[in-house]
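#lab-general

N.A. 3:47 PM
ok so I finally got the sequence cleaned up, no stray characters, all 258 residues accounted for. can someone with queue access submit it? mine expired

B.Y. 3:52 PM
send it over

N.A. 3:53 PM
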Amino acid sequence: MAACLALAGCFGPLLQVEPGQPRVDAVEKAVRFGSSPIAVETGAIASRTGCALDYSLYRPDAARTGDLVILGHGFLRSRDRMAGLAESLASTGLSVATLDFCNVRPWDGSHVQNGFDMMALADALGAKRVVYAGFSAGALAALVAGRNDPRALGVVTLDLVDADGIGRRMASGMERPLIGLFGDPSSCNAYNNGLAVYAVAAQARILRFSGADHCDFESPTDWLCRLVCGRLNANGAARSDAVLRAATDAIRSLIAPG
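B.Y. 4:20 PM
back already:
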């Protein structure tokens, strides 16, 4: 999968900005979901490695100040693949940020650095309470962030893929809630190796989606993922919609006003 999805990779350019300081380019668009207007801003901060972390911030008018959801994309994918979930969450009144991981290379997932880059984005955007979530390798980065950030309320993973035992080490002894959505085992999700992460977590909840493939956990997905990891049948849209609703509900359950 990695070689094929490399065609859709998105790497940030080098950028001369101070680490942790956002550079807001512009308001990209104003969208409306139901009766809720949502401003979508784009900007960038610098990773500690020097590359640019481009991000999109979805901010509803009635968003709770200081609360933020940060979404991480899959290996060699981009924040565009998390826009559907971001819009779904923003329509419920939550501020949501997506980012392009800039340290990833086809031979190196940089999962730990990606997790700390998610934390850096939370810093730059002034978050007081954070839910970290992500898809596939982005779920692993979210777990790194959720374990290391004292502001984290919990972590939601979408078809988590572990690598080098990082996920198990992060989850072992983790005191924050950890919610995992999983599809059927396949080569694209390392045959559900993420389930072993949940076996060692103290506050773990697993939601299984029978018949769901790896691409159903990406929103929106594309032809490349479907070609490599998808199933060609009439139920694809329904499965994706069910996962999107469940992911929205799971994240909201962690960031409910307290």
